[in-house]
Amino acid sequence: MAPTLRRITAIVPLHLEVLAGRSGLDRPVRWVAVSELEDPTPFLEGGELVLTTGMRLSGADAGPYVSRLVARGVTGLGFGVGLSHDVVPPAFAEAAESAGLPLVEVPRDTAFIAIGKAVSDLLAGEQYEEISRAFAAQGRLTRAALRRRGPVAVVDRLAREIGGWALLLDPSGAVRHAADATGRAGPGGREPGRDGPVEDWARETARSLEPEIARLRSGPSPASLALATPEEHVVVQPLGRRGFFAVGSPRPFSPIAHTVVNAAGSLLTLALEQGREQRAAAAQVRAAVLRLLLAGETGAAARTLAALGMRLPAEPVTVLVCQTSDPDALTEALSGAAPACFTAPWEGLLVVPATDAYAEEVIALAARYGRVGAGAPGVDLSSGKGVRVGPGGAEAEAVGGAAPAAGGGPRLDLAVGLDQARRALASASPVARFTELAGQGLLSLLDPDAAASFAAAILAPLREYGSRADLVESLRAYLASNGHWDAAAQRLGVHRHTLRYRMKRVSELLGRDLDDPAVRAELWIALSL
User: Fold this and answer.
1) Cα→Cα distances 125→2, 50, 132, Å
2) Vertex 489, ends 465 and 514: CA angle to 5°?
3) Which of 6, 53, 446, 527 lies at a 20 to 30 A Cα distance from 503?
4) What is the distance between the alpha carbons of residues 306 and 40, in angstroms, rounded to a whole number?
């Protein structure tokens, strides 16, 4: 920051005396300009301390001269005495006081160049201090990046360095981590899913930045955006393909502050890109653990996770299947939840067996990252054989047969819970629970393999039909509309006579009467599998 006029006038060897405009002494002086012109303003930029001996000025010129300087944004006027004028003309003091422009008397023995050198030294000192602060801030950011959760630590540190707020966003623009050092949301930073005021302002701020993020996402090359309102100044930067980050401050960003922000952006990009291989390896391990669980090898699964410092959730659990554009961000958010959640990739989705007591909290958190399908509660990770998972994910005694659920009935098999969650996901917007899906209670009683074989056999003639018309979807729309031609045709976007022809063809291919309720029930079950 440039030195103030008050600081300059306090330099004893200069012997400067303030004659007027003391209320403006705290304005910054960005340079010293010496001019004997009657109107020097065309050669000024604003923020200067103008020095003159008044060679071409008289008391009558005071009002217009001072007014021009004020209009140009000059910080102050230094009037040298002992040459053209023995004393500063009183009219200049009066005009300066009236306009609020600081007026300084420069004695004959003080050379103008001495004032210029003093200001130049102060400016150089300020710049050196700013550069030193920037290097120190970069060092603190670098040390933060080396911590276990580097990106989170960098965001927290950056908010403190700029005295504002910082958001780490995933590729969709959702909040991965938020930190605020302005005091409006309490101390520290928060992640989605943690209770606290930070969560509310972070989501609101992220929503307000959606247009800027869309511009960055659609741009031909990575760039940054800066925007300002009367209340704050904001910078948004992309982090490669890993997302975005935004910072805000109640004060304009200085060049040094921009340097600190850019350094944080580079560290975040590097940390997120370098962690990709490690995250991919960890995901493969968790996927292997899920396969062990589905195979009934609960003991091996628990020991595998224990070797990595992780635990299985305590039984019983609710199986969740999540569809998200950023599984890494969701995994990170769930791992930071209380208690931490085990996640595993599965067929392009993310599987989360959440302890029943915390299932609703996990569902709410996961829904912020995409769509969520939830199976019925009471799932047994041990699948009725092997080692039971006790509180905290530790191994308990060996068991045989199905374990009792909380209500006294048998627990569900993990494979069944996974299938239920997958079925629920098909209807999720953004959340669907298997227990709330109409008719799924009956379907859950069927043997999955036998039911799938039945569905494939009964619908095979329709799938093998060589027409461009999709007879399977036409049949689904017809049955879902309870046989109402107009409603079904509207759902398909075809004429009702076209639908009538298709249903006639379906009846012929299947050899069944579509007016028979039993036939309709069988076909609807087949379509639901």
Assistant:
1) 10, 21, 10
2) 55
3) 446
4) 77
- Give residues with Cβ within 8 angstroms of 121, minimum separation 6: none
Quick one: pLDDT at residue 318?
93
pLDDT of residue 224: 78
E strands, 357-470, are: 370-374, 379-380, 385-389, 395-400, 412-413, 431-433
What is the SS3 assignment for 263?
A: helix
Task: Let me know if 427 is exposed, middle or buried by CB neighbors in 10 A (0-12, 13-18, 19+).
Answer: middle
Give residue 297's pLDDT: 87
**307, 308, 310, 311 alpha-carbon torsion, rounded to 10°:** -30
pLDDT at 150: 81
pLDDT at 351: 94
| Cβ-proximal residues to 367 (8 Å cutoff; 6+ apart), any chain | 430, 431
Segments in the chain below pLDDT 50 = 186-198, 384-410
| Rounded CA separation 43/40 (Å) | 6
* Helical pair 496-510 and 448-463, crossing angle rounded to 10 deg: 120
